[in-house]
Specification:
By secondary structure, this protein is α/β, with parallel strands linked by helices. The chain is built from 17 helices and twelve strands. An eight-stranded mixed sheet has the order 5-2-1-6-7-10-11-12, with helices on both faces. Strands 3-4 form a two-stranded antiparallel ribbon. A two-stranded antiparallel ribbon has the order 8-9. The N and C termini lie far apart (58 Å). 44% of the residues are buried.
Length: 419
């Protein structure tokens, strides 16, 4: 493996979040920091929302004579003792250099790379807590799938994090079922990261050969604190340049941090495309589930997936024309591969199929199957429909709109309207 070059300082990495997917990603990161100690501090902090739990009888760690099995203990204590997240990722050994930390402020302190992996509804509050405790030149990557869609705008979670913290943040998404990744079953993912211009190295740090040099090559990009957002506009965030004694935080660094023999990483610059794929594929998965529940067969489901993929591309190119690439949807794990996985057995697909087979509403399936949690596809379908309707674009996205209407057709109030 090629080296990224010698630097006097190493990147400290913190994972913000410790659920099922958060712990799986933290496992990958800690494995790589331990192996690449020339580039990263081996120890990885993982922020854990503290709660008390007890070792279940189904766990290999259960011992009736042990206090851990008979008395509740803090989850961080159990993770650090057994090197396993016994509640959210049981039976998966975590690297010993992964440290569970209940203090968000302490966990993110001095971290130059922040990995966000938590439910999207907690982004705002946690970012507020982190302010003043992170390095001003830190960079991040969000593993939070989806986008926030309002009537007036579509907001990427990565950009929400960036604006809240005053940093640049990319996105990671793909056909990644957390348990399979944790079990080291082969999978791929896509990291979208568009390095800001000021992260390019000053030519003076890497001298060019003597002789005539175009004036443009002497431009000190590190003096620029502006960067473009995914719509091609100047971002409101004014970034701080990372110090020259740290390796650049770029595609190579992120691939080194996340790539494993069982978890292959492709790095692109299309943050909007990767983020939109993670949101819109859930709507298409609902449509595929409805078709399966109606008994229309695999040919019909394939047609739904094809049309859905085209509408995903069209949505991205319509509203993020400055940065979205169709190839992100059609060639990357974050696009077509995640769509296939979601339409084959994801919970949006399963619940939509069950709602038709049992002739009950999506809301009723959510209550029975998800303990009241809302399917991401249902909320995204509603938000996307409102966004399109305000612009009079319903006819341009027939599958996305039909899926929203089908979700509501199963609601008695909607049935009375004639659907």
């Amino acid at each position: 493996m090629a080296t990224l070059g010698p630097y006097s300082k190493k990147h400290k990495v913190t994972v913000v979040g410790s659920g099922n997917w958060g712990s799986a990603i933290a496992k990958i990161v800690a494995e790589n920091t331990r192996e690449r100690s020339n580039l990263f501090e081996p120890e990885v902090q993982m922020w854990v929302f503290e709660e008390e739990t007890i070792i279940p009888k189904t766990s290999k760690h259960w011992d009736p004579s042990s206090k851990f099995s008979t008395q509740p203990h803090k989850l961080t204590t159990l993770i650090n003792h057994f090197h396993e997240n016994v509640k959210y990722l049981p039976d998966i050994a975590l690297p010993t250099n992964l440290i569970a930390n209940p203090s968000l402020e302490d966990a993110v302190s001095n971290a130059s790379i922040l990995v966000f992996n938590l439910p999207h509804q907690f982004i705002g509050g946690l970012c507020d807590q982190m302010k003043g405790h992170i390095l001003p030149y830190a960079r991040g990557v969000s593993c939070i799938k989806g986008v926030a869609v309002g009537a007036d705008d579509v907001q990427l979670f990565s950009e929400s994090i960036g604006e809240k913290l005053g940093i640049y943040c990319g996105a990671l998404s793909g056909a990644n079922i957390a348990n399979e990744v944790a079990q080291e079953k082969f999978s791929e993912t896509t990291i979208a990261y568009d390095p800001p211009p000021m992260d390019s190295r000053n030519p003076s740090r890497n001298p060019t050969p003597k002789g005539p040099t175009p004036e443009s090559s002497q431009l000190d990009l590190t003096a620029i604190n502006e960067h473009k957002d995914t719509r091609g506009k100047t971002s409101r965030v004014r970034l701080i340049v990372p110090p020259p004694d740290l390796a650049p935080i770029d595609h190579a660094t992120f691939r080194t941090l996340f790539h494993r023999p069982y978890f292959h990483v492709q790095v692109v610059s299309d943050v909007a495309g990767v983020s939109l794929s993670g949101a819109l594929k859930n709507i298409v998965a609902l449509a595929a589930g409805f078709v399966a529940g109606l008994g229309w067969g695999d040919n019909a489901k394939a047609a739904v997936m094809r049309v859905g993929l085209l509408e995903m591309v069209k949505f991205g190119q319509t509203f993020f024309s400055e940065s979205v690439s169709a190839k992100t949807f059609t060639e990357e794990s974050a696009g077509v591969a995640d769509l296939i996985t979601s339409c084959s057995g994801g919970r949006n697909y399963r619940c939509a199929k069950k709602s038709v087979e049992r002739n009950i509403s999506i809301e009723e399936v959510e209550r029975e199957e998800l303990n009241g949690q809302m399917l991401q596809g249902v909320s995204t379908a509603r938000e996307v429909y409102g966004f399109l309707r305000k612009r009079g674009l319903e006819r341009e996205f027939p599958l996305l709109v039909a899926t929203y209407r089908k979700c509501n057709f199963l609601d008695h109030a909607f049935l009375s309207e004639g659907g």
